[in-house]
Amino acid sequence: MKTKEMVFAALFAALIGVLGMIPPIPLGFIPVPITTQTLGVILAGCFLGKKTGTLSVILFIVLVALGLPLLSGGRGGLSVFAGPTVGYFLSWPIAVFCIGYMTEKVWSTLRTWKVVIINFVFGVVLISLIGAPVMALITHTSVWAGLVGATAFLPGDCIKAIIAAIIAVQLKAVSPIEEKVQHS
Questions:
Q1: How many Å apart are CA 114 and CA 138, to the nearest integer?
Q2: CB burial string 112-128: b at 16+ within 10 A, e below
Q3: What does the alpha-carbon distance between residue 81 and residue 78 come to, in Å, rounded to a whole number?
Q4: Which pLDDT score, from 0 to 100, does residue 179 have?
Q5: pLDDT score recorded for residue 184
Q6: By CB atoms within 10 Å of each CB, which of 51, 116, 121, 135 scores lowest?
Q7: Residue 150 contacts residue 34 (beta carbons within 8 Å)
Q8: pTM of whole model > 0.85?
Q9: Which parts of the chain register pLDDT below 70?
Q10: Domain locations in the chain?
Q11: Which one, of 129, 102, 119, 127, lies nearest residue 160 by Cα?
């Protein structure tokens, strides 16, 4: 792994942490709040690609596990791995890898609408399909109730998917994916 990729991975882990400083919006009917951190996660996939993006999110998860209060609301430590948000949190590396993989596949014909679709399917939908059932298991509710409750995230997550796509396409020239494509 090149130094530049390691720097990007560290920067995006920091970005996701900074996005966690924005106060979460509790919903009341579901124990998982609305946060801006998924914007950083989705952007890591579509800007950094599958390898560097996944590494950035894994680094972030390790830092949280070590106790750094990087999750929204200042949470960190091993206790977050037993809470209702763990399914969402642990779905991030899978989502980033899938977003990065698909973005790399369409890189030569990159268009904002393509990245929006990739971000929606593998960022918004995949994270909910993993996070909601795990939340339901932990809170002893039905998976269906968890999935229905997770629909509250759809409007905001769709906006995040669009914002991440616009940023990634606008910054295409400096993306590690671009460098990888040019050297292939």
A1: 35
A2: eebbbebbbebbbebbb
A3: 6
A4: 83
A5: 66
A6: 121
A7: no
A8: yes
A9: 184
A10: 3-177
A11: 119
- Say how far apart CA 120 and CA 43 lie, in whole Å: 12
The class level of CATH for 3-177 reads mainly alpha
Block residue for tokens 């980033």: 96
- How much is the pLDDT for 163? 98
User: In the prediction, which pLDDT does 29 show?
Assistant: 87
Give the pLDDT confidence score for residue 62 in this predicted structure. Answer: 98
| 169, two tokens | 């396409």
Buried b (16+ CB within 10 A) or exposed e, 64-80: beeebbbbbeebbeeeb
pLDDT of residue 161: 98
Token pair belonging to 102: 């698909």
